[in-house]
């Protein structure tokens, strides 16, 4: 039974996005696509324990989902022309022309990121539909309760239905207006893979980071002159380059200052740096960098240093100041304090962090940062309390292990 359950979980990770995307392309209805895909997995849960896992789980699920969709159409649209129904049943041709985007998953991301929806609704809906993320994972990404996120997604789907927003393939002219939401989705998918927020998965999900990078490369091919697309790709590559050095053999998160830099992927770093140099040339020509380009530049400073002691913290701080001008979020301010601590000392950094408390009290990284600064100031009792709170909030198993060890060293 455990093998079957494992096969279903793996199939969900591997096939959900592709199934919803292909079903939407074929039937032109996102609600129908999601419902049919969910029913296909429910059928697998019911039948695979008795029948065994099929040789090709993806094909079985896709066939079952298509049949479920057709059954739904038969029930709901009995007045439709039977010839059209038969064509939908037996013709696997796409519902509409592929247009400028050939990849099913990427096409659906652009479709969900419709400008008629608020940006947060676009991102949340797309993550739910095709990002492979669960509702709790999406809620943690937005730092809101799961119930709140569920309501946002429900409202977004209702608006799509009420406004009769078509599931058209976006034209080339539509792409620039939708790319902001698309990049936000890809960034959050990558982040969930980079440091999984739930305790029921591995600490790092290479499947998500690889898919996010693949799709971002496709977006860059579509919009090669877009600086933020290039910046996001560079950020992903430079972050992915450190993946194998980030988790110890004991399953504990290894902080940046303790990582074996010889284990970083030199090829990915070189590619990321090359993209950033291209964007620096554009900045020199008067094109102001955006959020992802600045984040990538910060990552480039870190990956350029052969040793943590060689890090140019003044440049990191200057880049965070530049980022804060266009994205004055408390999380950016929190991350900035890492550079402040290196330049002005942990006491100054702690004062900055404490001013952020009202907005970040439920964010584990806030308490982890406070704990580290308190430890450096010799305030062990306060540091232990901050570590306790960070451990309580953290969902990533590797991060929890690291925080627990650091806390226990103070007791």
From TrEMBL:
Entry keyword DNA-binding: no
Lineage top rank: taxon: Bacteria
Keyword Transmembrane (UniProt): no
Residue ranges of every copy of the RNA polymerase sigma factor 70 region 4 type domain listed in the record: 110-160
Any Pfam family hit: Sigma70_r4_2
Keywords from the UniProt entry: Sigma factor, Transcription, Transcription regulation
UniProt-listed NCBIfam families: sigma70-ECF
UniProt record similarity statement: Belongs to the sigma-70 factor family. ECF subfamily.
Location of the DUF6596 domain: 178-278
Domain RNA polymerase sigma-70 region: 19-78
Protein name: RNA polymerase sigma-70 factor (ECF subfamily)
């Amino acid at each position: 039974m455990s093998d079957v359950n494992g096969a279903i979980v793996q199939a969900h990770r591997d096939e959900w996005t592709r199934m919803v995307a292909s079903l939407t392309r074929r039937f032109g209805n996102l609600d129908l696509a999601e419902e049919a895909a969910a029913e296909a997995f429910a059928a697998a849960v019911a039948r695979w324990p008795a029948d065994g896992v099929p040789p090709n789980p993806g094909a079985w699920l896709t066939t079952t989902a298509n049949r479920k969709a057709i059954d739904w159409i038969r029930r709901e649209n009995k007045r439709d022309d039977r010839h059209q129904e038969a064509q939908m049943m037996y013709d696997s041709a796409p519902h509409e022309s592929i247009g400028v985007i050939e990849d099913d998953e990427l096409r659906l991301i652009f479709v969900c990121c419709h400008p008629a929806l608020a940006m947060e609704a676009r991102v949340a809906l797309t993550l739910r539909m095709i990002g492979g993320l669960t509702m709790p994972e999406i809620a943690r990404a937005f730092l809101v309760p799961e119930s709140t996120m569920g309501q946002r997604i429900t409202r977004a789907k209702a608006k799509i239905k009420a406004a009769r927003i078509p599931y058209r393939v976006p034209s080339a002219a539509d792409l620039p207006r939708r790319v902001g939401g698309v990049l936000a989705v890809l960034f959050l998918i990558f982040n969930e893979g980079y440091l999984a927020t739930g305790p029921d998965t591995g600490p790092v999900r290479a499947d998500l980071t690889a898919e996010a990078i693949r799709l971002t490369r496709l977006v860059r091919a579509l919009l090669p002159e877009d600086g933020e697309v290039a910046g996001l790709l560079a950020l992903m590559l430079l972050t992915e380059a450190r993946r194998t050095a980030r988790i110890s053999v004991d399953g504990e998160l290894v902080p940046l200052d303790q990582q074996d830099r010889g284990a970083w992927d030199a090829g990915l770093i070189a590619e990321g740096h090359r993209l950033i140099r291209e964007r620096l040339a554009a900045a020199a020509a008067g094109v102001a960098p955006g959020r992802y380009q600045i984040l990538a530049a910060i990552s480039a400073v870190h990956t350029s240093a052969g040793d943590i002691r060689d890090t140019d913290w003044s440049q990191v701080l200057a880049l965070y100041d530049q980022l804060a001008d266009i994205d004055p979020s408390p999380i950016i301010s929190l991350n900035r304090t890492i550079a402040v601590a290196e330049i002005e000392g942990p006491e100054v950094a702690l004062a900055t962090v404490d001013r952020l408390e009202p907005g970040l009290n439920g964010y584990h990284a806030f308490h982890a940062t406070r704990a580290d600064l308190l430890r450096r100031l010799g305030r062990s009792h306060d540091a232990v309390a901050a570590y306790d709170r960070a451990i309580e909030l953290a969902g990533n198993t590797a991060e929890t292990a690291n925080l627990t060890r650091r806390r226990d060293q103070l007791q």
